[in-house]
Amino acid sequence: MFELREFLGRWSGALVLAMLWLALAALTPRFLTPSNLLNVALQSSILAVVAMGMTMAIISGGIDLSVGSVVALTGALAAGWMVRDGWPVGIAIAAALGVGLILGALNGALVVYGRLAPFIATLSTMAIARGLTLVYTRGYPISGLPDSFTFLGTGDLAGIPMPVLIMLLVALVVRLLLHRTAWGLHLYAIGGGEELAWLSGVRVRRVKGMVYALSGLLAALGGILLTARLWSAQPNVGVGLELEAIAASVLGGARLSGGYGRVEGTLIGALVMATVGNGLNLLEVPSYHQQVIKGLVFILAVGLDRALQAGVEWGRLPRTSRLIRRRSEG
Description:
Layout: H1 2-10, H2 12-27, H3 34-59, H4 67-83, H5 89-112, H6 118-137, H7 147-154, E1 156-157, E2 160-161, H8 162-179, H9 182-192, H10 194-199, H11 204-230, H12 241-251, H13 263-282, H14 287-316, H15 319-329
Antiparallel strand pairs: 1-2
């Protein structure tokens, strides 16, 4: 019985996704068509790339609210450098990734050395990056991007969209980083208890600083992919993306208290978010109703996830501890 609870607690996001797919398959026959499922994967890919950086920040016990603005700024800079200044595609992409890395490192410095709360530090960077985007673009889109760049967002290899392939490659690298390196072990230790990790010899500042730098780098990659997919840099793109990234991470099992989070779960969480949006469009639900429904689905999904996680933790307690907790709760 406990094994079943543990399985459900670990894969609650997949359970939510399966329930959504079954419901949408019953409501509209167009949902389970191969072309639509590939479209769902494409819609989730950019969110998943950004959410993997968010997941690492959440594992550390922090959060990164700047990712949506970093997506907009780096996409605008890459487009501007190619269209206005004539930079080669590779150099423009590398420079945009570097800007994302620098902004992430700035977040890390504010958190680690400035001793600002992650919420405040990244909220400040969010405002700065969004403002710089509007200044650089003057509020207008930047179009006329070269085909070699837009291929990253609209092209495919063997029928698989490029953003999906890049997402899978990023997921593999992040998973290896989290589960096959000492840095990843230290990251989970910091999320579980920063002071205890420091007493155990973990270089807390270095690990946390790298977390935010990686989050900025992945946000920049998401900005490049989104700009390539849209064929232009839109100054207001990425608004609310940080909330969707948090939602994908939490749906995937990450806990805002820190110490928990998995790449597989984040991918599933991103698929849940994309499935909800795709299903509502197929059902022709008005856009002004969709936000309400998405919020309700998110509440239900997170509630189910937390209920299953609580069941696992309850099952792990010794019988005497469970009796004590039951009495203390009621």
